[in-house]
Amino acid sequence: MLEHRPRRFRSPSNLSRTSPIDSRAVEDLRYIRQTMERSAAFTAVPGWGMVAVGVTAFPTAWLASRYAFDLRWLEIWLAEAVLAATVAIVSIHYKAGRHGLPWTSGPGRKVALNFLPAVAAAALLTVSIFKAALGYELAGVWLILYGVGIVNAGVFSVRPVPVMGASFMVCGAVALAMPGISNWALAAGFGGLHIIFGSWIAREYGG
Fold first, then answer.
1. How many CA atoms lie within 13 Å of 5's alpha carbon, on the beta-carbon side?
2. Residue 138, domain extent
3. Is the entire prediction scored with pTM above 0.85?
4. Structural domain includes residue 28
5. Does residue 41 lie within any of the structural domains?
6. Looking at the domain assignment, is residue 114 inside a domain?
7. Torsion, Cα of 207, 199, 87, 53 (10° steps)
8. Structural domain count of the chain
9. How do the pLDDT tens digits run along the chain, 207 residues long?
10. Is residue 11 part of a domain?
């Protein structure tokens, strides 16, 4: 007959000495966390920051309406673009820090990389269109390409973002079809749409 020997159980103190969490386990946990960050949606989109950007677009449109798509008109809207970008970056940084979200890596980097090509295309086309004395076409081009960038970036962001991008594209199409309202189409897009969707994002995704 087989002799049954009593099992010996290790005490917790012995386990802690013989089975420590080694560096490989720590690396595995870090890899899992980074993978989750890369696959997660970018939720640091600043709703109230968008609202602030939208508010600044209305006085800009009023001031630019005094000029007939000339150099001064272009300078006014470029200054607005710089101001809007500054507000957006500061707002993203603030929201990401407040919620403990990464915004310079993972989904944040994907959002930027998908948004920037459309912005670069808009900058290049601006030079050519303005040199051709077709300044009234710029509003439609800006709105459409901005919308394209938002749609592309929205793949890695929250649900309202790609919807906002599509709305900008529609607004741009209207501006191209009706060049007489181009300046006010910019106000409707960069002003009204930013306020509407910024309020939606702030309400649903925490500021």
1. 3
2. 36-205
3. no
4. no
5. yes
6. yes
7. -170
8. 1
9. 445 455 554 554 444 454 555 566 666 555 445 444 444 456 567 889 999 999 999 999 999 999 989 999 999 999 999 999 999 888 888 877 776 666 665 666 777 788 899 999 999 999 999 999 999 999 999 999 999 999 988 787 778 889 999 999 999 999 999 989 999 999 999 999 999 999 998 888 877
10. no
